[in-house]
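Acyl-coenzyme A thioesterase 8, pasting as requested.
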Amino acid sequence: MAERKVGDICGSSASTTSDDHPKDTLDLKPEDGDPESPEAQKDQDLKSVLVTSVLNLEEIDVDLYRGTHHWVPRTQRLFGGQIIGQALVAAAKSVGDNLYAHSLHCYFVRAGDPKVPVLYQVDRIRDGRSFTVRSVRAIQHGQPILICQASFQMLQPSPLQHQFTMPAVPPPEDLLTAEELIRLYLSKPDLAEKYKLGLNKLLAIEVPIEIKPVNPPVFYKVTASEPKNLFWVRARGYIGEGNMKLHCCVAAYVSDFALLGTALLPYPGYRAQFAASLDHAMWFHSTFRSDEWMLYECESPWAGGSRGLVQGRLWRRDGVLAASCSQEGVLRVKPVTRPSKL
Ligand SMILES: CC(=O)CC(=O)SCCNC(=O)CCNC(=O)[C@H](O)C(C)(C)COP(=O)(O)OP(=O)(O)OC[C@H]1O[C@@H](n2cnc3c(N)ncnc32)[C@H](O)[C@@H]1OP(=O)(O)O
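Structure tokens follow.
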């Protein structure tokens, strides 16, 4: 069994040792086996959401795919992470299994319309000896909403390997999920009625991602903090070993969730009037499982000119850096008006 050193670029299998030769395509169908088995049932639980719907594109023609939506933010703009994840799925479809997603760069050029599907047009830019590049346009109403370039590399180990050290934080088992925190706040007898509606709306959102904030916010008691945030994150449900490209697509979906908000943390006196991701870049460093808890370390080194720059690092529980991302977003804010105490 070929031992894959940690730190290899996203490979064809999510395990760190693998000598299998999985199929050439981005296989999203549940693995073969007994469909009634507990494993297959667990498998179906997630694949009915992120894998069999959001990241399972319909092939319309060669290099042309169609994606649908599962969850749409209250802004009624398509969630950027969905468009990135679907674009990477489309790009990966024409890339052999001996090549691994190592980076993507994209611009969000128009808001996505949740009322119509998204078409993904893939352009096979170059198939090099080690690197293969695909360009993808996400299209709605005949216009691009996202332009994305993704690069894939053949496995090429190297003696040059280093990474930062993962922050020391409590394990996810010691923390509450976002839903559990909201229920805890809703259980407070002195919670004002006006807050209950907002918290119940948050509870009703069916985001296919589980989150455990390391430093949970005290709802509605906003205080200024450094533009840094840490939370444990994983895709809801079960994906399994599967194809590493699939885990990269799920990580791309996850990476855009709650990232831009990091830039707002130092400004409790303001709320976003218009906030949207402008671009998003991502680098995949090592094998990982997007359906297992990973630590998402977010920070914003800069904000200005109605924009904020945010960066994220996704860490495996064993301290290996799995992926990094950077994003700039437009942030138009207005002062928070609080009822006077007089
Ligand atoms: C935070 C998340 O939720 C993360 C996400 O997933 S966001 C989803 C992914 N990202 C996107 O959808 C962004 C897609 N890109 C775009 O929509 C456009 O490129 C863009 C809006 C960013 C810029 O386009 P543009 O034509 O230059 O628009 P712009 O002049 O900036 O105006 C954009 C909006 O800001 C408003 N606006 C402009 N100036 C403003 C100001 N000074 N104060 C407040 N609002 C202002 C405009 O009224 C407009 O609002 P509507 O769309 O409701 O009309």
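Note for the archive: The longest helix spans residues 38-54.
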